[in-house]
Write a structure and sequence with these properties.
Layout: E1 2-7, E2 9-10, E3 13-14, H1 16-32, E4 35-41, H2 46-50, E5 59-63, H3 73-86, E6 89-95, H4 98-110, E7 114-119, E8 130-135, E9 140-145, E10 151-155, E11 170-173, E12 204-208, H5 219-228, E13 231-234, H6 236-240, E14 261-265, H7 271-277, E15 282-287, H8 294-297, E16 300-303, H9 306-323
Parallel strand pairs: 1-4, 1-6, 4-5, 5-11, 6-10, 7-10, 12-13, 12-14, 14-15, 15-16
Antiparallel strand pairs: 2-3, 8-9
The structure holds flavin-adenine dinucleotide.
Flavin-adenine dinucleotide binds next to helix 6, helix 7, strand 15 and helix 9.
């Protein structure tokens, strides 16, 4: 018996969500008294894969077939199932990110495994196998017991505080047996957004809400984000009225993030927004209304006009940067 985790890389770096899933797999393996193994498909940087040892992965199986770089859910599912069978994995851990949402249910069907979609905590294993997940946008939690022998856990990104050690994983070349015929889709072209930090991977996020008044005022948010090397985010109504693109929308119906710092300008802090950001380490809220609910969740609050405060923050940050060089 073992626990296996699916690993993804982006531009030669293992994704933050995969490192978190690997940590989850390693901690689950400890609870079950077994080892945690990773499966990596396509192009990866070997040194990055070795670093998975830091979160408790003993071995990485790597099928380097570059065809896996094209995101083909059928082929990837088949490969994960082949790897799981080969190491006799009873538990498969997959990050419930955009890709994981497509893969995890397929793996679960192929393995006849019970699945928890959107796990938020390690399993309880003392009596059965029960995994917690959020329901009703984080207002309640459900403890879901998986009764099947094989189990798939799709982990909500940015929910765990990982502990990092100093170990190295061994990398083993592995053939998943996936053939060219298993790749049934071809990506003809990819248009990548460049020069911006990926929201779910970001450690610093500057976000704006309806209090920013209009898209013409986003310059200060973008400037602050650029200066800090942060990603930009927004509340849902802002994306709904097309002030900002939907891939920036955080919350219950958007992305869940867990950065070290979340700066929220002109956002009220409705429960549906908080559902996506309340795992942030430090929350800074800028709002004109002292009664705004976000102040209750904030570590630091500025009671003021975001259109005035943000340019001052940019100025202060620039001074701080030049003084520390
Ligand atoms: C099923 C469902 C799912 C939802 N999912 C999401 C979700 O995923 N994400 C999400 O964000 N919302 C979501 N919502 C919407 C959510 O309930 C709130 O309506 C939304 O978050 C409010 O956005 P806002 O804070 O930008 O706007 P508002 O509620 O209009 O708040 C604007 C805030 O800005 C402040 N303000 C005004 N002027 C200034 C200024 N000059 N400077 C500083 N502060 C100022 C105001 O005091 C106010 O607090 C969902 C709602 C439902 C029903």
């Amino acid at each position: 018996m073992s626990v296996i985790v699916y690993i993804e890389s982006n531009e030669n770096r293992v994704k933050k969500t995969s490192i978190e899933a690997a940590f989850y797999a390693a901690e689950t393996a400890k609870l079950l008294g077994t080892e945690a193994i990773a499966i990596a498909l396509g192009s990866h940087d070997a040194a990055e894969l070795e670093k998975l040892g830091n979160v408790g992965i003993s071995k990485v199986l790597h099928d380097s077939n570059v065809k896996f770089d094209q995101f083909d859910t059928r082929a990837i599912t088949k490969a994960i199932v082949a790897a799981s069978t080969s190491v006799n994995a009873d538990v498969v851990v997959i990050s419930y990110n955009q890709n994981g949402k497509a893969i995890a249910p397929r793996v679960s069907v192929r393995m006849k495994a019970g699945m928890v979609a959107g796990a938020t905590a390690l399993p309880y294993t003392s009596a059965g196998f029960t995994v917690r997940k959020n329901v009703f946008s984080g207002k309640a939690m459900a403890n879901v017991q998986i009764l099947t022998e094989k189990k798939v856990i799709a982990l909500t990104p940015n929910t765990l505080q990982k502990v990092v050690g100093v170990n190295t994983s061994t990398i083993e070349a592995f053939s998943t047996g996936v053939s060219d015929a298993d790749f049934t889709t071809v990506i003809k072209s990819v248009e990548k957004v460049t020069g911006t930090v990926s929201l779910t991977e970001a450690e610093l996020v500057v976000s704006g809400g309806r209090g920013m008044k209009g898209p013409e005022n986003w310059g200060a948010i973008e400037e602050l984000a650029n200066e800090m090397g942060a990603a930009t985010a927004c509340s849902r109504p802002v994306a709904d009225v097309h002030w900002r693109p939907h891939h920036e929308h955080v919350g219950q119906t958007g992305f869940t993030i867990r950065p070290n710092l979340y700066i929220a300008a002109g956002i009220s802090g409705a429960i549906q927004h908080l559902a996506g950001v309340n795992g942030s380490k430090v929350i800074v809220v800028i709002n004109t209304d002292l009664e705004a609910p976000f102040f209750k969740a904030a570590d630091y609050g500025v009671n003021g006009d975001a259109l005035v405060v943000l340019p001052k923050l940019v100025e202060a940050y620039k001074k701080f940067k030049s003084a520390s060089h």
